[in-house]
Design brief:
- This protein has helices at about 10-15, 30-45, 45-60, 65-85, 90-95, 100-115, 120-140, 145-155, 160-170, 175-190.
- It is an all-alpha fold and about 190 residues long.
- α5 (about 90-95) crosses α6.
- It is a multi-pass membrane protein.
Amino acid sequence: MAKVELTPLRPWEDLFPGSERFAKPDFRDLSKWNNRVVSNLLYYQTNYMVMAVIVFLIVGFMNPIGMITGAVVVVAVFLGSVWAGENKAVIKNFKKNNPTLFVFFVMIASYLLMSLFGGVMVLLLGIKLPLILIFAHASLRLRNMKNKLENKMESAGLKKSPMGILLEALGQQEENLSKIQDFLESKLKE
């Protein structure tokens, strides 16, 4: 198994190359859209992490108590959902069959718990705003060949990254080796 390592920080020109490398996703083909999002999350993970930390710190300085409460609740719900997804057969099957819906339910559960403790707006600004920005970029940014190749290496287990581990825990990496072989064979034939 490969050791876990961060991907390099991608240059600004690669992250925002111009309008020709952005397109709205095909909402009728959810698997293709999901594949684009997962690929971009893996490829730009270090850039996304830096952006999330900057937004988190700005909001955290504005309301530190609300931010700490929000972070504790979200981490607890996430860890509880991962534990339940691994140890409870019903939840494990649901997570495997409906990975996007599983993530949606985790987000709803964290929101409901946050509303009990107060500080929902701090949570939305500090934690969800970076997630929305990241999701928007990952949904709109078209992938390039380098992006696709690096993601295939991650799927095959040749590389491991923090985002890959997180996506795997959420059930978002369902790609098998036969798909990887088909992709590599098609690229070799070109």
